[in-house]
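Long-time lurker. I teach an intro course on protein structure, and each term I like to show students one example going from raw sequence to a predicted 3D structure in token notation. This year I'd like something fresh instead of my usual example. Would anyone be willing to generate the tokens for the chain below so I can use it in lecture? Attribution to the forum is fine with me.
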Amino acid sequence: MTKIAPAFGVPPTLRQLLSGTALYGGSVYRDLYCILGNTWSDLIVDDRDGLIESVGGSRTMAEILRGIWTTSARMLDNKRGHSRLDLRVFHTNVLCSWTELRRLLDQRPAIDIDFDWQHGLPCPLDELRWRMAHHLLMMGEQSAVGEVVGVCWAYARRPGEGQAEILAAATGAELDEGAYSPRPIPGGEDLVDVLAQWRERGQQAILEAVAQMRGSIREAVAEAIQERPKPMTVLAALRKQAAEAERPAPEPEGPGLVVLASVSHLPGSAKDGESKTTSASNPRIEFAPIAGKRLPLVPVPDLARVQRVLAGEFPDAAQIITSILASLAGRPYVRLPPLLLRGGPGTGKSRLARRLGEELGLAVTVYGAASVADGSFIGTSRQWSTGRACVPLQAVKRHGFASVLVVVDEISRAGTRLDNGRLTDGILALAEPETARAYHDPYLECATDLSGVSYIATANSTEGLDPALLSRFRVVDMPVPTLASLPVLARGLVAELRRERGLDDRWLPDLTPGELDLVAEHWRGGSVRTLQALCECALDGRHAGPAN
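-- Reply from a regular --
Happy to contribute to a lecture. Here you go:
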């Protein structure tokens, strides 16, 4: 007779499963039933109030656990054997519960999740989520691949049992890009041991890399012995080190600009161009790395390519994109004239400004003007505890380029009080070329050359804006997106989602014609923000599974 595992034995830990230990009882439903009963004993006695209290008072979370428990118990009670329909229904129920469990857990602040993980405080709900992802992968669920790979890397970085096996599995998954062969485990009810395939692939790659490294080390040692130089005296070595230390850093090729001449007038001992790692913080140490250095200016890229890319993402704005890029023709480096994109909420003004900078090769800093009620944009004196350099100079230091793009979002909603200065007054001063070439920063108390910085502002309306600002900035009306542009806009929005989630088009393909038709029923043109929400809804619906 075949020995059947008891319902409430000792299930393997998640780390043991990832390192190759078999499922408890040899099946997903036995493993889930056992881990649920061991972790939340209120399920066994059907104590709903106790279960709700054990999950922090969340009735929804308690119902998810009861749903997993019930569907596992139903499979366990089926003594006549499981048909393919039984297995498919069980798979669908587990997938739906896992999807909802992920949604609830992802609503927690990321800092809380990282704190618990870094300090070895495992959350039973997190471990259940990852365990279910492992089980779904064994049942052939493609949407669980990304999560299981991420869990493998997380556990591979933490010392413990099976670390080498988990690291091999994570490596193999990355090398094979999550692919695997659908070879069922004998007697495993169509389960596939995906981690075993990844582990084998990773171990093979690691062994090959080790062998190659050993050969390289032996060759390097042999060459070093043959070419060993004559011993250098201590005095000669010191002279060589001193000469190398005094050698100036190579100047960047192409156009460049000295933004900050020196910090020697400030209190402290840091030298111009010197980078120090220290816990102390003062203006001299902070800005010494760029002082006296010729910082590179971003050369003008292939404008025809930039126009094609942006017009493909913003088809309704193709004409204004061409007009904006025309100002860069023949210039040695990228510097846009001050622009103000005017258009209704959700028309894509901020996104166009950001993408324009990215495609031109500029580092982009987005400054939200709606929450600003003073002139701190232009910097504040170091006499105050909140002293800091002006926003453009901070961006230059952060990215190491003299040409950057500052996007002032919602400039029409900035405060208008005069007691601490107005944001628009500060932007006017910095956007004026003559002023920007010798801008006196109040934090550093010296002149800085910010003439390589570009500015794009956005506003729903220009009503109430300073006429001087409107005369300095070129006002461009952002066209309202139309229904005809839906396929192109949706493709660009899905591409951005792929970048945010770290996926490629194999794991997150573009919307299908059917999905586009569904989105078109609710979006007839107008706000890109609304279109983005509809696209995300359509993508998330792919993983929701069929309704029970």
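Some talking points for your students: The chain has 22 helices and nine strands. The first helix runs from residue 14 to 18.
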